[in-house]
Amino acid sequence: MAANEPMIEITNVSKRFGDFEAIKNISLSVPAGSFTTLLGPSGCGKTTLMKLIAGFFEPDRGDIFIEGRRMNGLPAFKRNTPLVFQDYALFPHMTVQENIAYGLKLQKLPRKTAEDKITAMVDMFGLHGLRDRLPRALSGGQQQRVAFARALVMGSNVILMDEPLSNLDAKMRVEVRDELRQLQQRLGFTAVFVTHDQDEALSISDQVAVFDQGRIVQVGTPREIYKKPASRFAADFVGAANFAEGVVKAIEGDDLVIACGNGIMRVHRDGYAFGPGERVTLVIRPENIAVHESASRGDNAWSGHLLRSSFHGRSVRYWVAADGRDWIVDDAGPGSIAGLQGLVHMSVDKRAVHLLPAAGGTVTIESGTGAIA
Length: 373
Ligand SMILES: Nc1ncnc2c1ncn2[C@@H]1O[C@H](COP(=O)(O)OP(=O)(O)OP(=O)(O)O)[C@@H](O)[C@H]1O
Known about the structure:
InterPro entries: AAA+_ATPase (IPR003593), ABC_SmlMolc_Importer (IPR050093), ABC_transporter-like_ATP-bd (IPR003439), ABC_transporter-like_CS (IPR017871), Mo/tungstate-bd_C_term_dom (IPR008995), P-loop_NTPase (IPR027417), Transp-assoc_OB_typ2 (IPR013611). By secondary structure, the protein is an alpha+beta fold.
């Protein structure tokens, strides 16, 4: 396989269950050695796409290529694409050692080679002392490690993972996800990962595909997805966002001058193709709005009434009523405005405002022009 060839290429794939179209003409390229995440709400088709890649389902239309080979019609056990599930799916009557060894039996390796591979997995996942235990005598985190070991021992170039961390508690979930990412980068396998947790998707991935109702609505790096969401759905699903309607009044140098509420917003053009007279939706992440006790002058500044606040340890979230809407503001400052109340003032940098067409469509940003810091 050529170095820049994708490990997995999905082209125009559709899948129906009776009258219901679960996957609607999806195309996705998964680069070799990447960590690609399918992100979307429950029921949007993430698991179905994973099962199509793994060979548990056949597409009604379209093709799936792995390492350049067309997979259509090839049964799951011939694809070498192990799938790690949320519920681990360990064999309950087999020990840790037997669970890890299971897939190797099919490879009919010399005994010593197989044992060395199992020991390498036991070392890698810290499963010493647990080799002879049955799954029911393991914690959730330990069972998940065995499930990863069982998938990785096969030496596959591709590992598929369907919400593998969902049954772990919050702290363990973050620990295992960081370990998993390090492992993937060290071993260099291609990972396809499913989650509905945006924080998990952003932190672990090279590439995120955002799903909505059987369609992929955006594919990009975590930064692109977060900073330049292609639609209101993507903006909303990938994190908290403020939306405001505006009309482009003029283009001045590198800025779009936008009438918004009672004020003017200057937004860096950044490759947006909007022109005067067009209606736009401004998308502003809560952490990009600064709050002040005294009013700032000029554009990109507005004032409102503080409704309430909540303390989150690393930041304080404020809800502020201004221009007929409630704004969400996350302030991670050193706490100098902990006693903020009454009239408050907000401002935003012109590069921290993202624009979408007001009609609810999607935006295409010319590549190479958007400064995504
Ligand atoms: N075998 C099946 N028969 C009929 N409908 C199915 C089948 N598998 C999935 N579906 C339907 O297809 C849609 C997509 O399901 P899928 O499991 O792929 O979603 P998902 O995004 O993985 O959701 P979740 O995050 O809840 O697991 C759902 O509406 C589901 O009910």
